[in-house]
Amino acid sequence: MKVIVLGAAAGGGFPQWNANSTMNRRAFAGDTALPRQTQCSLALSPGDDDDWLLLNCSPDIRQQIIDTKELQPYEELRSSPIKSVVLTNADVDAVAGLLSLRERQHLSIWSSDYILGAIEANPIFGVLDRSIVRLERIGTHGKFNPVPGLEVETFAAPGKPPLYLEHVHGIGAVVGATLGVRVTDARGKSIAFVPSCAEITPEVKRAIDGVDLLFFDGTMFTDDEMVASGEGSKTARRMGHMPMSGRGGSIETLREIKAGARYFIHINNSNLVLDRTSAQRRAVEAAGWKIAQDGMRIEL
Fold first, then answer.
1. DSSP secondary structure letters along 162-190
2. Cα–Cα dist 256/287, whole Å
3. Cα first-last separation, the chain
């Protein structure tokens, strides 16, 4: 299985267009200790490069395709090796890129009733021609093959509705609003992708235990980092994300699970682990974790 990190940042990317913190200013200026990151998405292939699966489809998908030769057209006048998309939530940074895939290209989009329902309810997604773009409902707990050679299993990852639906559904957990996925190839190699997780339940632990490669929610280092820095008023948990550090954080809670390699992904522009020279980055790495970065390629 081939895995490409198309984007490693949380919503807004890094640097964020309107963010003027020290880290964001350094990233705008091209500081090599703070490499720029696009919004979170992975591309997976069973190894033949003919069929690629996207896990989430960020607003940066066009630039990500330009930066990724494997995803560019290679036959016929109109073509794409991107055959399927699996969505783990309906947040803007996970689904808005679908609008860039509207140019009458055959595609299947897989997700829960809740997430696909949010897409169907928004008329702008009508630009996806439903005669060639299939919406495949797989439930919160589903098992399916979105491309030949890859089996995907979904599981519940506690979270909340997207920001634009909080006024409808509130901020509490909603069934199917947030998923995790485990992808396994024909040789039994597996990865787990959980970019949003408000609580690590026994189900989440079981679903990710034993994978060869883990990408987990790394939105914030501490629960109150945006409040403490003055960059926002919401905690990580209020936004539907576990903090990396501290009592009950993901580093502590996932210490006992087995994984061949573990990466934090979906990193917010306020998170000091983005700085390769920071104490926070060293602490994460000392705990056995790595920070995902745009353009990373991993072969299992």
1. -GGGHHHH-SS--TTSBEEEEEEETTS-E
2. 12
3. 5
Gap between the Cα atoms of 103 and 128, Å rounded? 8
Q: What are the structural domain ranges in the chain?
A: 2-299
Q: In what order do the strands lie in the sheet with 213-217?
A: 143-147, 150-156, 179-185, 190-194, 213-217, 262-265, 290-291
Cis peptide before 161 (omega within 30 of 0): no
Total-model pTM: 0.96
Q: Which of 26, 22, 70 is nearest to 48 (CA)?
A: 70
Correct CATH for 2-299 of 3.60.15.10, 3.40.50.720, 2.70.70.10, 3.40.50.11720: 3.60.15.10
CA 196 – CA 279 distance, rounded (Å): 24
pLDDT tens-digit series, residues 239-298: 889 999 999 999 999 999 999 999 999 999 999 999 999 999 999 999 999 999 999 999
DSSP assignment letter at 124: G
